[in-house]
Amino acid sequence: MTQQDIRPPASAPLALAEQAAERRPLISYVLPVYNEQDGIAAFHQELTAAFDGRADLDFEMVYVNDGSADGSLAILKDLAERDDRVRIVDFARNFGHQIAITAGLDVARGDAVIVMDTDLQDPPRVSLELVDAWREGAEIVHARRRSRQDTFFKRTTAHLYYRVLRSSTEVDIPLDTGDFRLLDRRVADELGKYREKSRFVRGIVASMGYRQTEVSFDRDERFAGETKYPLRKMAKLAIDGVTSFSTVPLKMITRLGFLVLALSLAGIVYALAMKFFRPEITVSGWTMLMVVVLFLGGVQMLSLGVIGTYVGRIYSETQGRPLYLVREVIGGSKADD
Ligand code: UDP
Ligand code: MG
Questions:
Q1: Are the beta carbons of 179 and 101 closer than 8 angstroms?
Q2: Tens-place pLDDT, residues 218-248
Q3: For the whole model, what pTM was predicted?
Q4: Phi/psi of residue 84, each to 5°?
Q5: Residue nearest to atom 17 of ligand 1 (CA)
Q6: d(CA 117, ligand 1 centre) in Å
Q7: Is 89:6 a contact under the CB 8 Å cutoff?
Q8: In whole angstroms, what is the distance from residue 284 CA to residue 51 CA?
Q9: Complex ipTM, two decimals?
């Protein structure tokens, strides 16, 4: 099964809009799961407890099992059996958090779609505050972290990163927001048209426009297990964020080129002056030679790396491979009729 097969037919949103007048709005949750066996049941319980009091709304939950290697899928299947508001999209392998979110958005049918983590770091009760902001007219509601409980390293790097990202791109990416947000059906449909591979969903959403607002919250600690974002994945996401929205790194190469040119002009003048006025010491220039060769080598490698990153993106986009592969979609009998 490929991504095309599981996306609802194009007419579905229209039909939903027509019915919306007579029925309660449906809120979909898109919930990426990767090796969360120790916390997922508690998460599900807290989520359902949070919205059970809301008789004015209907809910569905789309869990995307992103190739978990632990018992997460079995627990999810159990949840789906007992609750027909639960659907599971089971990936053929681990495709990564951003792709898992994308698949969930492709499948979700709600009038509004909420994306949130399944480790209880994004508190379920806050998601209902997002719904309230949506009902007041917002089309995109970002949940902004007023405070967070992560490690010092993660907090400082994230803090710095969001500021660098904002200053290097023309997109007004809201500060300190992850992927916890609500999207109106119209926005979710439009977002579905963005099929780029190395994706930075929060940046794409911010770039889309519409009526955007934010709700602040205090981010909790992870309920169970370890972060599924080791440094390597964090670095990839960070690079995807910058390269998706900015060519500033390429422009920096040009600037660096000018700087090195200016330095080398000074070097040339110095070398010639030494040759003509102090010929007795020109042979002892080994240190200078090494410094110059290594410096230029480093600058060139760095520049090639930056260009290579962009070329790599072009390469993977032109391959046109599907974003994800699904083993099966499980559950959700109620939402099908
Ligand atoms: N996740 C995923 N695929 C991955 C890595 C993470 O679906 O390859 C999910 C994970 O289960 C969680 C969310 O993405 O629901 C955020 O991951 P995590 O909490 O580990 O990131 P952190 O909060 O530490 O940045
Ligand atoms: Mg987390």
A1: yes
A2: 887 777 778 777 778 888 888 888 888 888 8
A3: 0.80
A4: -80, 5
A5: 228
A6: 7
A7: yes
A8: 78
A9: 0.94
